[in-house]
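Next comes this protein:
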Amino acid sequence: MPPKKTSKKRKYGSTAQKKVRRAMHERKQGTLKSGRSGKKVKSRKQAIAIGLSEARKSGAKVPKKKSS
C-alpha cells in the first residue's frame, strides 16, 4: 500500500520569508540594529525575531506570537 500524501499548509508566507532573509543578511553585514536601544544585533535568533516582527507589522502571513 503506497504512503498517503498529506497536504501541509505553510506557516509563513513568502513576504515573511523575505523579511527574515533581509534581517539575517543585515546581521551578517553588521548593520542590523535593535529597535529600542539601537545596539548592533549579533544573535541569530534575535535577527529572526526582528524579521518576523517586521513581517507582522506589514501584514504578512506569520503565526501569532506565543504569549508566556
